[in-house]
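quick one before i forget lol
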Amino acid sequence: MTTQKIRSPFSFIDLEHRHEKLISRRDFFRRMLRAIGVWCVLALFGLLIGMAGYCYFEGMSLSDSYVNAAMILSGMGPLGELKTTAGKIFAGSYAIFSGLIIVIATSFVLAPVFHRVLHHFHVEAGEND
């Protein structure tokens, strides 16, 4: 008789171990919603940092700072010409930061998918042995 481990609903790294059964589709759906929520929070956090930087260093309006931050965060590059040295330094640093944020946020979404696929193959291999 195996005891079911009680999982915290707020844990991001609490995945089932190899000796445990595959979680239900409903639980996996909840896990994916949580991961997508983390992705959204990280992307919004990155966007707000970019908007604040463009407002402060370049004196842009909120709409201009939003579009420039969104374009850099999405990998497209800034729209407007940067006028100050501080703004150019910020834009370069923000571009590096944005790339890392997107990679990290995407890993939160892909990790449960990869884990489920690999765990599924491990469970099948264990049943055949």
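fyi The chain has one domain: 25-128.
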